[in-house]
Predict the 3D structure of the following.
Amino acid sequence: MNTPNSNRARVTASRAMLLVGALLGGNAGAADAPPPAQTRLHPSAAGASLYVAYCAVCHGSEARGDGPLASGLTVRPTNLRRLALANGGEFPADRVRAFIDGRDVPLAHGTREMPIWGKAFKVSRGAYGERRVQERIDALLTWLRTLQER
């Protein structure tokens, strides 16, 4: 049933996705050269920065799955602080990397609400090609690993 609140949440979520697309820009032909040394950050600092820019709107500022757009999504975003706990105490880096990238994750039933960040990072302004995509995802993983509840 569509209520005014659910419709408003969907519109808000749609606007946020448009904003993300606008922020990413379009630079599909970027070279695979690394960024200049002065723009490189330590992986955990870069990961925190990327998280705030791309993930916090859904997963929340503390990565608990309670971001401002979470209520407008069909599936509640994952509490990213509990990934290791849900995996026997080990951070599932390969699974998380594949899910963030999203380009090789098959859609079993229907659509995926989380953006396919591998594709988005590849075509974004300043992406520097595939190597930079992997650096961004690695930075996110490094930072997410620091958040894990024990």
